[in-house]
Design a protein that fits this description.
Bound molecules: pyridoxal-5'-phosphate
CATH class of the largest domain: Alpha Beta
Order of helices and strands: HHHEHEHEHEHEHEEHHHEHEHEEHEH
CATH architecture of the largest domain: 3-Layer(aba) Sandwich
Shape: globular
Number of strands: 12
Radius of gyration: 21 Å
Structural class: alpha/beta
Strand content: 5-15%
Largest sheet: 7 strands, mixed
Number of domains: 2
Helix content: 40-55%
Strand order of the largest sheet: 1-7-6-5-4-2-3
């Protein structure tokens, strides 16, 4: 069957996951090698010139890494994928492959803390200007476009506020102005959202999260049009060198086989927990796209295939209550990261988004008392029991 005819679950199981043609090993091998032997000088030179296919050196390509790139690109319905040593390596390599000194980027003001730091502290040192706006407000997006704007960058839903951006609307503005759209799809994974289907140019992922799915690796992936991804491969990936190790590529591939079932199981738990939190007397506010109380619930239904398993919430007692809750959970782990089998709780203001100033966090809507939960695959009744006892200690309810 052609990969374009496969449904997502079939792609996750088969694309990039083909048995080894040499031995029949049903699990593709790990090509744990740094370099590849050339049969002769002419062949080696032809590969370097790009005249002949064939591997050269793992920073330039490796069969296990290629398999992962094919897998994620198929899942995202893109032309070509590239794997990186981390989500941040993917994000920085994609952006640096586009901009030069004097260029301008529009980015949402609510993005992952290190993305925020990369945009505002690193890129600006190289003469790139960045305007942080609310990309969910299309009028603001349109007004922020300058003649030198090269990229519109956002997360949807955003980490950690779960704010969504209307991809179709932003893409319309970007296309009119010749701007590249780059979207971080880490929170939804291609199971629940495929930005390329809305016309987005490049999708980036922290594959550390749902794609890997087991909390045992750091990796990143980007997917886009072949011509652009080839440019990234030949410039910022090759020459800055944020390359994924073959073993970690293999672990992500293994994780992807169960991605659809993991995403759906975690989402089922998250829906129950979001509803539980919403009706809990000690909880002030819950942010989850699957709740009809989410101000962008209709947009979530329009542009996503599910609502995911990330929830943020604020307790009535603010920061102190949130801290007490996080110190009181017993089954849930107090840890950053997300998208793994165990449920993780964390405090964005002091952890994942601590590289933002308090003013930047406030502008992004990240309250000091906000608690983020990445719902895992435990039995939901056990999770509710754990959260109930922690909420009681934290809020008295
Ligand atoms: C939404 C999002 N994007 C990117 C990253 C960075 O990914 P990595 O830690 O794999 O570099 C993270 C990490 O938490 C994230 O949450």
């Amino acid at each position: 069957m052609d990969k374009d005819d496969m449904r997502l679950e079939t792609k996750a199981t088969h694309v990039g996951q083909e048995p080894d043609p040499l031995t029949g090993s049903i699990v593709p091998p790990i090509y744990q090698t740094s370099t590849f032997v050339f049969p002769n000088v002419d062949e080696g030179a032809a590969r370097f010139r790009g005249e002949k296919d064939g591997y050269i050196y793992t920073r330039l390509g490796n069969p296990t890494i290629t398999a992962l790139e094919r897998s994620v690109s198929a899942l995202e319905n893109g032309e070509k994928g590239l794997a990186f040593a981390s989500g941040m390596a993917a994000i920085s390599s994609v952006i640096m492959a586009i901009v030069s000194a004097g260029d301008h980027i529009i980015a949402d003001k609510c993005v992952y803390g290190c993305t925020f730091a990369f945009l505002t502290e690193i890129l600006t040192r190289f003469g790139v200007s960045v305007d942080l706006i609310d990309c969910s407000d299309l009028e603001q997006v349109e007004k922020s476009v300058k003649p030198n704007t090269r990229i519109i960058y956002f997360e949807t839903p955003a980490n950690p506020t779960l704010k969504m951006v209307d991809m179709e609307g932003v893409v319309r503005i970007a296309k009119k102005n010749g701007i590249t759209t780059v979207v971080d799809n880490t929170f939804m994974s291609p199971v629940f959202q495929r930005p390329i289907e809305w016309g987005v140019d490049v999708v980036v992922h922290s594959a550390t999260k749902f794609l890997g799915g087991h909390g045992d690796l750091i990796a990143g992936v980007a997917v886009g049009r072949k011509e652009f991804m080839d440019h990234v491969a030949e410039t910022t990936l090759k020459d800055i060198g944020g390359v994924l190790s073959p073993f970690d590529a293999w672990l992500v591939l293994r994780g992807i086989k169960t991605l659809p079932v993991r995403m759906r199981a975690a989402q089922g738990n998250a829906m129950v927990i979001a509803r539980f939190l919403e009706q809990h007397q000690g909880v002030e506010r819950v942010y989850y796209p699957g709740l009809s109380s989410h101000p962008q619930h209709e947009l979530a239904k329009k542009q996503m295939y599910g609502f995911g398993s990330m929830i943020s919430f604020e307790l009535k007692g603010g920061f102190d209550a949130g801290k007490k809750l996080m110190d009181s959970v017993e089954l849930c782990h107090l840890a950053v990261s997300l998208g793994e089998t165990s449920t993780l709780v964390e405090h964005p203001a002091s952890m994942t988004h601590s590289s933002m100033t308090p003013e930047a966090r406030e502008a992004a809507g990240i309250a000091d008392g906000l608690v983020r939960i990445s719902v895992g695959l435990e039995h939901v009744d056990d999770l509710i029991a754990d959260l109930s006892q922690a909420l009681k200690k934290a809020t008295g309810f």
